[in-house]
Structure prediction request, 578 residues.
Amino acid sequence: MNTATTHFQDALQRSQQRKQLYLGLALLTVALLAPFVAYPVFLMKLLCFALFACAFNLLLGYVGLLSFGHAAFLGTGGYITGWLLTRYSSLTPELGILGGTLAATLLGLLFGVLAIRRQGIYFAMITLALAQLTFFIYLQAPFTGGENGLHGVPRGQLFGLLDLKNDLAMYYFVLAVFLFGYLLIQRTVNSPFGQILRAIRENEPRALSLGYNVNAYKLLAFVISAGLAGLAGATKTVVFQFASLTDAHWHMSGEVILMTLLGGVGTLLGPVLGSSLVVWLHHALGGSVLGSWMSVILGSIFVLCVLLFRAGIVGYLQKFVQRNLR
Amino acid sequence: MSNVILETRGLTKEFNGFTAVDSVDLQVQQGHIHALIGPNGAGKSTVFNLLTHFLPATRGEVLYQGQVIAKLPPNRIARLGLVRSFQISAVFGQMSVLENVRVALQHQLGTSFHFWKSASSLNHLNQQAMQLLESVDLQDFAMRKTVELPYGRKRALELATTLALEPTVMLLDEPTQGMGHEDVERVVGLIRKAAVGRTVLMVEHNLHVVSSLCDRITVLARGSVLAEGDYATVSANPLVREAYMGKEAEHV
Ligand SMILES: Nc1ncnc2c1ncn2[C@@H]1O[C@H](COP(=O)(O)OP(=O)(O)OP(=O)(O)O)[C@@H](O)[C@H]1O
Ligand SMILES: [Mg+2]
Prediction:
């Protein structure tokens, strides 16, 4: 059958894949060299939030679900990992992170089961309510240290072999974690499952009428997203050696929306760029007089972004490239 | 050929006290092209929504192949071979034309939840998808983004996508609505071809289409069945003339 057209499609796909590969290799080189130029702890913070935003974007950008409760997963990953590593000193950090990630995944399953049937704003409201409930549990629970946070989490030795107290070793581990999450999302989006997600986002009733149990697909996407958000929180706790309520607060759920929209929702790199910009802004303005104006500055950026660059920075660049460089 | 494949008994739907579908008893014979006609707001699309459980019925039941299906979710009903289309053309606009059909075929691979697998594993389905596109004369559009297609072509694509599920019974909601004469002719041809070996229940306003295509006609007005029979019987019915054809007579 008409093999010429499918071959043409293959060729087009392959040339696009090659371009993406070159871009990926360039970015990877930057990431590998970055700790020799910039402060590794700051870079690790960037990577953790980048993973968090990517996880969030899987849901908003590729399923069309706006969760307003993702801080719960970031916070859960952090607290459970912190608790495991302080409580059981023989536990290696990767197992602690695994534990925190699994806990966030399970919490995601619970949230998802309760929220996934709702549409639009109701979905956002239920996720917010559940995340608030989670926040108050962490505020009261004895193991979290309440408002003081959970301190003194040991970085430990990766697989019992590699000492993570060395910032450079820690950095490459965090980079590996980030790449794992990023590539998993990329694959998810470009998988048979991802095709069904696209169909659901574009026309949910039609996907249903074609025999797909749309709620089950949305639920799986939600659980993957929650798990990866938990992975980000877990890794962050090991880097900074403490977990705090900030990560579980609804401000954080709002900030990840800002990061994603700013960078470009529904693009793979957008959330990475958006989160880096926001974290950098916090860092740059944190110490100065402008620090107390942070919320106002972020809010203004948010408004500008929604009004002027609806596709976000990366979305805007993509369109620009498509229009002018082809 | 007097097998009833799809049947409703006392099917009723109320929206906040307003009865949109009022104890409808409908019998669709296997192998027929059965038309459901009636004025705007008669409840035709609502009947489709009830048959496929997109809406829960207030009362009454739906039997498909002798089995009550009212408790099943819409996706399960589709898997049983009772597949619906929509009044507003339902396609996946940002996907290519080929991908639209492939999404429907994807179920057979059993990998639709495999988020770790590459989407290139779906290329096995391309040939089958191209065959379906050829059957509706869309092979030259395969790589186009679907939103770019003209309306008539979108409806043809929708038909190909529905056919990809190899439905036993197809429910088509106004497949020729809003089309020019030429497109109508083409879509009628496609439906006639697609209906071979299947059963079709279709909502249709265009009476030329109904008279040339359909074996049996049910007329719905204000939620209830007004008349039923072949075209000659139904069009001779004075009630139908009054309720429906009186308004449409100038088109006939
Ligand atoms: N979800 C709903 N909620 C409330 N009322 C509804 C709903 N769906 C349909 N109705 C009402 O039920 C009646 C029947 O609508 P339906 O869409 O089934 O008519 P139809 O026969 O398909 O008409 P048309 O020829 O215009 O497509 C209309 O009065 C409509 O306003
Ligand atoms: Mg209708």
